[in-house]
Design a protein that fits this description.
Elements (H helix, E strand, L loop, with lengths): L1 H27 L14 E5 L2 E5 L3 E2 L2 H7 L2 E2 L11 E5 L9 E3 L11 E9 L11 H9 L3 E11 L2 E3 L2
Parallel strand pairs: 1-6, 3-4, 5-7
Antiparallel strand pairs: 1-2, 2-9, 3-8, 5-6, 7-8
């Protein structure tokens, strides 16, 4: 029985030492200030058929910033080579969300997105679009068009899947 007590005590000490070391590493790094939890609206979008959760914090268009009640940043509009976020404008299928061209873990992921507007052509049967591959397929049928909005959004994905 004393052997179990010794092993249990050793396990507790190892755990405590690991926790102290982890805390020391966090405390010794750059100081960002005191952390607190703030409620913030989140949005959902599709990437390759599954839903991701994202924030929308900044946009390069002053008019969009005002309409969306987020920060305006002209500087982010100067960033080029970004992945696309697709937004359907006008008529759309029920349940349609934003569509991302990347997500965390992908080599081209960025929290900054080049906004691309999708529009269904008159008379087209609308479907929920869940991937950029699907966008390409539907565009080839002539039922969907896209255009660059010349807007950059800061929409970090905070939860994958």
């Amino acid at each position: 029985m004393s052997r179990k007590l010794v092993l249990g005590s050793a396990a507790v000490l190892v755990f405590a030492a690991t926790a102290v070391a982890a805390y020391a590493k966090v405390v010794s790094g750059p100081v960002m200030g005191t952390m607190s939890m703030e409620p913030r609206p989140v949005f959902h979008g599709y990437y390759d058929g599954h839903k991701d959760t994202y924030l929308s914090t900044d946009v390069s268009s002053k008019a969009d910033a005002k309409a969306m009640h987020i920060n305006h940043s002209a500087q982010i509009g100067k960033v080029k080579g970004l992945p696309e976020i697709y937004l359907v404008q006008g008529r759309h299928a029920a349940g349609q969300l934003a569509i991302f061209g990347s997500e965390p873990g992908e080599p081209d992921y960025s929290p900054l997105w080049s906004e691309t507007i999708l529009s269904w052509k008159a008379g087209a049967k609308m479907v929920v679009i869940k991937s950029d591959t699907q966008i390409d397929k539907v565009e080839k049928t002539g039922k969907l068009t896209e255009h660059d909005a010349h807007v950059v959004l800061n929409c970090p994905i905070v939860k994958v899947g």
